[in-house]
Amino acid sequence: MPDQPSRRGFLKGGLAAGAAIATATTAARAADDPAITEIQDWNRYAGPGVDAEPYGVPSPYEAHVVRRNVPWLTADPISSVNFTPLHELDGIITPNGLCFERHHAGIAEIDPAQHRLMINGMVDTPLVFTMADLMRFPRENHVYFLECAANSGMEWRGAQLNGCQYTHGMVHCVMYTGVKLRHLLEEAGIRAGAAWVMPEGADASAMSRSLPLEKALDDCLVAFKMNGEALRPGQGYPLRLVVPGWEGNLWVKWLRRLEIGDKPWQLREETSKYTDLLANGKARRFTWEMDVKSVITNPSPQAPVIHGRGRLVLAGLAWSGGGRISRVDVSIDGGRNWTTARLDGPSLPKALHRFYHAFDWDGSDLFLQSRAIDENGFVQPTKNALRAVRGENSIYHNNGIQTWHVAKDGVVENVEIS
């Protein structure tokens, strides 16, 4: 009786028969690859049961996909920031555990049963809500991006931080569930002459900002869930303000109070901070809306090209505080020539948009750029165009075009072509 064919022999024969549709290189690699020809342990043995991890966690092979900080950016991690690993993600939704965090006095650990939201000031009836009270209002679900006004701020004078996570990682996008701020304010009754709202946080910094009443009554949300589950403590549990399309400092976490007034409060976060110093020494204030912006996430300095020449897929993100992204152009030669990228996935107002561009790389140097255009016709500017208007002393609201240099060996670096 002839020998039964081995698994290895069967696979080699199958690969040979399919040589007409597979390249010789691919066939040879597959025939000699133990990952193909040998039975792996996960094929042999049963794995952990359904209750091994009551709260699911990522695969240990994805342990490198984490938020990271830059220690020298701030004097103390209690008042600091970490960064979303944009180069490791796809789609438009950011997993809760990877959303960047910016704190001014560390994370407030709050018992929701003891948390209260007060509305006072120029209202007919001052009110205090418990979390249970808030759950009785009509709730809504919306997908929005949140971007810190200082995102890309270290790049204002030139290329500095070598990683998409560090240059652009102070942004994330999730689905928020909550109550329209308008419903709560109307419950209290807004007096004539009121024009501003001051949200205040329950953290040790008592984070506060002045918010125009017009915006508060438009699309702001008092949120208690993100991506379907309760807010994480670092994202404001049990309650935060959502201010769609506007700078993240306004999205007050651990929200405890809303005061209504007739003028702005001139708070620290809107006078000495979160203003744009211009070339003439004056500062722009109340520049709330986040401008149209994009970045190529792959390839990027933390995601080099490892497969050599051939088909290369660029992936990136684009967003605008003014609404939807209508188009993203990409350049592989530092802005000399532009090609329209393919937008894919949901196109939601004031949310992240995913774009792709595939081409055949011949192994020569690349200078990758992306340029977003929103539905209002606003075009992402070059860094020089931005500096021509605002000088070189600013930090906030840097939406200039980012450049990555891809060398012949696939290594990617942050450079500037303005």
UniProtKB/TrEMBL annotation:
All residue ranges annotated as the Oxidoreductase molybdopterin-binding domain in the record: 104-265
Family annotation (SUPFAM superfamilies): E set domains (SSF81296), Oxidoreductase molybdopterin-binding domain (SSF56524)
EC nos: 1.8.2.1
GO MF annotation, one: sulfite dehydrogenase activity
Gene3D superfamilies: 2.60.40.650, Oxidoreductase, molybdopterin-binding domain
The organism's place on the tree of life at top rank: Bacteria
A Pfam cross-reference name: Mo-co_dimer
Matches recorded under PANTHER family: SULFITE OXIDASE, MITOCHONDRIAL, SULFITE REDUCTASE
Name the UniProt record assigns to this protein: Sulfite dehydrogenase
Organism: Nitratireductor arenosus
